[in-house]
Amino acid sequence: MEALALFSRIPPLLILACLVMFSAKLYITIKKMRDLERHSTELAHELEHTLRREIEVARQIQSKLLNTKVPEFTGGQVTGTSISARSVGGDYYDFCMLKNGKLRIVIGDVMGKGIPAAMLMLLTRSAFRNTSEKGKGPGETLTMMNRILYDDFKSLASFVTVFCADYDPRSKVLTYANAGHNLPLIVKGMTGSCEQLQGKGIMLGGIPHQQYQEHSIQMNAADYVFFFTDGIVEARNQGGEAFRLERLRQILVQYAGSPAAEIEEKVLEGVANFTKNLPQKDDITMVILKVEDGQTKQAAV
To answer: Among 15, 105, 139, 219, which one is least packed by beta carbons within 10 Å?
Structure first.
């Protein structure tokens, strides 16, 4: 009651002045908060734009590094492609025409996704480029790559699966070694059979001083080898069903008589039709080596 009595004695103009001052301060405070919110939003948009631009630059760099020059050789053709599930990915393939006339092929899959996997993919590429001419064969090449990569991959608790193969166009012999990667499929032109190559091994970065065993197969005209990463067979549709190896085999056999580039297109088409172009969680990479007689062939990436 006393408080109300005191309040009633305050002149109305003074009360009005106080309310005006309070309203003014409240307005200034709200305006500052709105300005800060607008500035924060602008800053967030700027950071997002910068990040998108840098990721796009990284994607372009990776694309250029992956889309390596396809070598030409007499009696066959080779093609390769890689599609990242994100802007950048951890899959990798490469070619090297050796001084002895053999074609060295490598395909790999780094553990993980996105930018971290892409950075480790670049380490893998560098290791292959540094050893491709030094290693006498695929087994020695993988051994040397593991020696280079082991400490870095161990410190990052990561690894990379790699399959390396040498193809001799003169003898049509494919010699290969495997570091924990998907086993490629060989399609026989004469019989239409489609079988996996044999040979296991430990992924790079798994065990120090690891030695990799070599295997060899005799190929003939119209035969081809399909190297791939697990993003193809593990691609899923809206129902969660995987594409699986059997669907891949069917496509490879059906188009066995086609050029390597067309086989590549049909595999991508088959995966897209199965998934209804649903975004995938893993990168898709493949390399096709096809044996022919006579002319020099090159398939575009």
So the answer is: 15
CB 111 within 8 A of CB 124: no
Tally Cβ neighbours within 10 Å of residue 161. 22
Q: In what order do the strands lie in the sheet with 284-297?
A: 73-83, 284-297, 224-228, 185-187, 194-196
Rounded to whole angstroms, the Cα distance separating 130 from 16 reads 82
Q: Residue 254's pLDDT band (boundaries 50, 70, 90)?
A: very high
CATH value at residue 206: 3.60.40.10
Closest by Cα among 158, 167, 98, 154 to 128: 98
Alpha helices in 10-137 (DSSP H): 12-66, 114-131
Q: What is the pTM of this model?
A: 0.79
The predicted pLDDT at position 62 comes to: 55
Instruction: Report yes or no on 2 lying in a domain.
Output: no
Give 97's strand partners: 103
- For residue 50, what are the domain limits? 10-66
